[in-house]
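Working notes for the structural subgroup meeting. M.R. asked for a predicted model of this chain before we commit to crystallization trials. I am recording the input and output together here so anyone reviewing the notebook later can reproduce the run.

Input as submitted:
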Amino acid sequence: MSRRKADELIVSGVVRVNGEVVTQLGTKVRPAQDKVSVRGTPIEIQRHLVYILLNKPKDCITSTDDERGRHTVMELVPEEPRVYPVGRLDRNTTGALLLTNDGELANRLMHPSFHAPKSYIVEVEQAVQAKAIEALRRGVKLEDGMTAPADAEVLDPPTSHVIGIVIREGRNRQVRRMIETLGYTIRKLDRIAFADLTLTGLRRGAWRYLEEHEVKRLKNLVRQLT
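Returned structure, recorded in token form:
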């Protein structure tokens, strides 16, 4: 139905929202809550799906709200339509975070069978030893079990304080726990890519909508891995 035709129906008084006649153009409708009918026939509202990539800053928690009044990622993205974080980054971890109101995609992305790469850069206090890199590549024993092998390398030889690491799991605070278990103190932890979505051109604290081709690629990737 065209926008013009929809406006004509509203003006003619045949559209009801939650049982009440609506004649004002531009009236907002909540797809998940409101019931709309035209001449008594219920209308299914197509939800406007939104996909946002945020470059999460430090001292910001991945939550829809916080009882302690701390800053959340929801303060950085549009209020409408309401979106939700896909997975979590802890308060002091920065970088790529996907938010969406596409519940089906979000559930698939967070499912244990989803093994798409998540890329991090870790800066540590101590010089990184070769045996630590080897351990990351083999898997690290954590309290919830052995991790899968990760791709890992030192990015700043010979200083050796910066590690590039790619994991394909989604455990809570996984990279931070892996590095700390190996005896290193983390100065900075930044996720630079999530499931092929990179932060190129996106400053810290900024966000952007995904391009159509990025959404399609993400959905295709999920279908291949689940």
